[in-house]
């Protein structure tokens, strides 16, 4: 696999006094984790003694989870007009694995791989856009004007040549993209996914096509991103029939993904769904250059929003780590076992008084906040912190109760 390609380092790494969460078995007692120079777990235990040649990260009781995995980002920087650089939403924000959601199509995927994915220190995977040009000029030049926008043979060939990093196909099912083409692009994308034996990620937005009809085409393992959007005709709480279809879809194994973005997440919709027992399976940001300093900011803030709306702490962690890994068929069990590649996020959950917005502009106050401290990629520990928007609105200083670390 392309991911977890950690290079040999000069020093081993010891994470000292971290509290495991998200590995199964609830919140564990504090442990030490020793990572060898090869980037693999060498030992775990209550106390591990090491020499001066080992780099030590003092967790001081902070949480240690599998690496945060953002299932929906846009990082084909320079190849589209909306994409960010990977480092703007990756390890420096506590995210070790990112999945680009359709920035590239078959016509420009080779550049995305060579210039973005391969040099990145994070693990980057991709859903290949069913539209050949991807999001080159997002929402200005549609990638799905008509059948001339899709090259079936070249899309199949691109997937086959890049199966180590392409984890599925992406289609945007919204009238602002497809005009009157309705369900045809979704049907074509689903057909190709059956041929390629890969999941389909569908962006649901302004109808047509109807969210209702999209759900009827999907099968186990497919992904609906923007599941809690508040758009007229696409909100699962304004239509009881649609809500029941969403419930049924979740029971059929379809992944409901947050995909916050600049226009696709509503506090009211998410809160109502959680109260009625319909949580998202995965939490993702849909970060791009129009949402970074707008409603989204980063993965930690998005996770904190779901926590504030009533999702359990352990459920939020699972939806941001092992659940998205399973969605793209990466290993999700035994991630703390000896010999496994080390990919973790060290974070605190701190008291806060932070006003945030959803994609509709509604505000909410976060009282508890995920604060990333380190992204662990092999034997490399990257210092991490939340994104501070350009207007400085990401909140006041917070002090970790364990170590006094400030953010």
UniProtKB/TrEMBL annotation:
Record bears the keyword Zinc: yes
Modified residues (N6-carboxylysine): 170
Site features described as Transition state stabilizer, chain residue numbers: 172
Domain annotation Amidohydrolase-related: ranges: 64-353
GO terms of molecular function: deacetylase activity; hydrolase activity, acting on carbon-nitrogen (but not peptide) bonds; metal ion binding
InterPro entries per the UniProt record, alphabetical: Amidohydro-rel, Deacetylase_Atu3266-like, Metal-dep_hydrolase_composite, Metal_Hydrolase
Keywords in alphabetical order: Metal-binding, Zinc
Keyword Metal-binding: yes
Sites where the protein binds Zn(2+) 2: 170, 203, 226
Binding of Zn(2+) 1, residues: 72, 74, 170, 286
Entry-linked PANTHER family: DIHYDROOROTASE-RELATED, IMIDAZOLONEPROPIONASE AND RELATED AMIDOHYDROLASES
Protein name (record): Dihydroorotase
């Amino acid at each position: 696999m392309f991911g977890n390609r950690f290079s040999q380092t000069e020093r081993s790494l010891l994470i000292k006094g971290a509290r495991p969460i998200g590995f199964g078995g609830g919140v564990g007692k504090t442990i030490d984790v020793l990572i060898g120079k090869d980037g693999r777990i060498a030992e775990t235990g209550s106390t591990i003694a090491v020499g001066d040649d080992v780099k030590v990260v003092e967790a001081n009781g902070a949480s240690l989870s599998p690496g945060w995995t953002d299932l929906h980002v846009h990082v084909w920087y320079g190849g589209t007009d909306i994409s960010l650089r990977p480092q703007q939403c990756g390890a420096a924000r506590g995210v070790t694995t990112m999945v680009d959601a359709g920035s590239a199509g078959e016509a420009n995927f080779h550049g995305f791989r060579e210039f973005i994915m391969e040099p990145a220190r994070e693990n980057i995977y991709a859903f290949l856009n069913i539209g050949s040009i991807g999001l080159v000029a997002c929402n200005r030049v549609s990638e799905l004007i008509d059948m001339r926008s899709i090259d079936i043979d070249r899309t199949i060939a691109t997937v086959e040549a890049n199966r180590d990093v392409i984890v599925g196909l992406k289609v945007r099912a919204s009238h602002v993209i497809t005009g009157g083409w309705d369900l045809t692009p979704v049907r074509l994308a689903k057909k190709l996914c059956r041929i390629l034996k890969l999941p389909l990620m569908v962006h649901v937005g302004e109808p047509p096509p109807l969210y209702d009809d999209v759900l009827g085409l999907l099968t186990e393992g497919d992904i609906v991103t923007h599941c809690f959007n508040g758009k007229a005709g696409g909100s699962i709480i304004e239509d009881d029939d649609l809500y029941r279809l969403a419930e049924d879809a979740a029971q059929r194994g379809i992944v409901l993904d947050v995909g916050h973005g600049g226009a696709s997440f509503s506090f009211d919709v998410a809160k109502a769904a959680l109260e009625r027992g319909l949580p998202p399976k995965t939490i993702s940001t849909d970060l791009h250059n129009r949402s970074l300093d707008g409603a989204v900011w980063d993965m930690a803030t998005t996770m904190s929003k779901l926590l504030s709306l009533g999702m359990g702490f352990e459920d939020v962690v699972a939806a941001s780590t092992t659940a998205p890994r399973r969605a793209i068929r990466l290993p999700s069990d035994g991630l703390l076992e000896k010999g496994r590649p080390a990919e973790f996020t060290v974070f605190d959950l701190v008291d806060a008084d932070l006003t945030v917005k959803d994609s509709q502009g509604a505000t909410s106050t976060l009282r508890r906040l995920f604060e990333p401290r380190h992204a662990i990629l092999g034997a490399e520990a990257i210092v991490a912190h939340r994104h501070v928007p350009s207007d400085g609105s990401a909140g006041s200083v917070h002090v970790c109760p364990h170590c006094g670390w400030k953010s």
